[in-house]
Sequence to fold (275 residues):
Amino acid sequence: MPRRPRDPDVPSSPVEYFGVELRAYREAAGMSRPQLAERLGYTPQWIGQLESGKYGPSEDFARDCDTCFQTNGTFHRLWEWIQRFGRLAVLPPGFPDFIEREAEAAGMHIFETMVITGLFQTPEYAYEVLREGRTAEEAEQLVATRMERQAILKRKNPPHLVVILDEGAIRRPIGGREMMKAQVQHLIDLASLHHITLQIVPADRGSYAGLPGAFMVLSFAQDPDIVHVGGYLGAQLIDHIDAVRTFGIQFDLIRGAAMSAGDSLKLLRTILESQ
Fold:
C-alpha cells in the first residue's frame, strides 16, 4: 500500500517547528525577513533557512528571538527541545525505552565486563567509548544523554546500586593515562556513597559466570523486575519471568566470584597509584 504523503504544512521535526513559529511571530509583528535580520544582526538568507527548517537555531539566536518578540523564553524552550530530540535521534534502537525505565528503577544490579558501566563514566571517558564509528557531534550528543542519566545517582531518593566490574574493564587504557586516572578516582568517589556497592572480579579469578557478557537487572517499587542487555543492534529489555530469574541467579554467581566491597576499594586505590 503506498505511503500517504506528508502534509507540507505540518512540521515533521522540532527544527521545522521552530521555523514555523519564527515565521508566524515575524509576520504577526509585521516584519519582513530583511527587517528581522537587521534587528537581530543576522542575514535575511539565514532567517529564511531557519524558517524553512533547513538548519537549526543556535542558543543565542533563540534568546534573541525571545527578546525581540517578548516571548518569555518560548524560543529558548524550543531550542532545548531540539537539543533533546537530537540526542534521542542518535540513540541505538530500544535505548529511549531503557532510559525511561532506568529513571523509574528503585534498584539496579549491574555487571560490566569490557568497559566501566555508563552510569559511572566521566564525560571524557564516555566520549572515548562512544566516538568509534560516529561523528563528533553524534558522540557529543550521546555523551550528553549519558551524563543526564547519571542525575539519578544524585537525586533525593536515589536507587540502590550493586555494581560489579571485571578488573579488565578498569585496567583497559581508554583515552590515556590522565583520563584513566580521573576515571578511577571517580569510581572511588562513587564507591563511598551510601546507596552504591561496588565490587570487582579480579583478573586472576579465571573462568566465572560473567564471561558471557554484561547485563543489568532493574527492580521497581511496584512493577516486576526487568533485564537490560546491550549489543550492536541496540538495547534489549527482557521481562519474561523465567529469563529475569535466570539473570538474577547469574548475578549472584558473579558476585560470589567478586572481591568484597572493601577489598575492591583497596584495589581501586592501588590501580590509581599505578597510573
